[in-house]
User: Fold NAD-dependent epimerase/dehydratase domain-containing protein from Rotaria sordida.
Amino acid sequence: MNEISSNEKELSANQQRILIIGVSGLIGRLLFNHLTKTYPTKYEVLGLDQHMNISPRYQFKNYDNFKAETIVPLPLNKFFQCDITDREKLHQIIKEQNIKIIIHLAALLETHPDIEQISYVNIEGTKNVFEAPDIHRIIYASSGMVVHGYLDRQPYLSIFNETFDDNTILKDLRKITVADDPPLPDLTTPGRTVYSKGKIICEQMATDIVKNNSKSIICARFGAVNIEDKPETTWNRSLWLSHRDLCSFISKALEAPLNISGIYFVMSNNHRLWVDLEHTKRDLGYVPQDGAEKI
Ligand SMILES: NC(=O)c1ccc[n+]([C@@H]2O[C@H](COP(=O)([O-])OP(=O)(O)OC[C@H]3O[C@@H](n4cnc5c(N)ncnc54)[C@H](O)[C@@H]3O)[C@@H](O)[C@H]2O)c1
Assistant:
């Protein structure tokens, strides 16, 4: 063996192997791109999904400005096709690939037509991921939608209705925190109800698992991520999450000591942001660089 190949071997032995579950989705592709480009020697990134084609959210929602060259090719030898509800196959892949770190993004979205399927995949599939053998850390994609129920109440209702008076209310706005404000699901449509209740159940599952286990699970209540990387023009911009801030959060969550587990809001620093990021900043050193401006 020559000197170069022996160095390469040593380098790859020091790499940490990350499995992105839901890698064919919008966030999965963004993170695969970010981690492989930013940390070519620190992390080896593998992906798993039920299909290799990019997800409908990635393809259709952004059809007008869809550019094939923006899609990062996923090498075949780094991709595993598996449905997360197939517990045996999922655990076998994780064991065989000696995975210690998982970023779990796979889910059926609130727009999926089969409500029962949303619940089954998102809860049972996530249970299978959480119970995978020999994992040190899981970063789980929860959602800001788990507190959308507060949008029925003032002062958050006025943000939703866009009647919020920035001059008088913004400086006194009490932001929703993980510690003091229990989740309140979005009940506006059956899909959103099942989707957000499923995320709440999985956050609770994560909390229970880490109590009795050395595993770390970081539940990230992501804000609204879109391929254009621009805040929308509705109230939803208050919960925008830019690609840069998403990637920086993931880097921080991967680097955090393994005794850190918990539930964290992950949004950009938006005007009218109504959830509290202090906990995320304090525990993980997350510092959002972007923010939706006032319109
Ligand atoms: N994009 C956002 O604004 C946003 C906001 C908050 C939370 N989230 C969460 O982040 C995660 C990723 O969202 P996204 O926007 O990339 O969605 P997406 O639909 O683009 O990606 C989800 C991926 O999960 C895969 N998947 C679904 N069911 C599966 C199964 N049974 N087995 C294996 N893979 C399966 C899909 O094929 C898809 O590639 C989801 O959990 C979502 O709930 C997204």
Notes: The beta strands are 16-21, 43-49, 79-81, 101-104, 137-143, 216-222, 262-266. The pocket of nicotinamide-adenine-dinucleotide is lined by residues 22, 24-28, 49-51, 55, 57-58, 83-85, 105-109, 121, 125, 141, 143, 222, 224-225 (CB under 6 Å). Residues 190-211 form the longest helix (22 residues). The two ends are 62 Å apart (CA to CA).
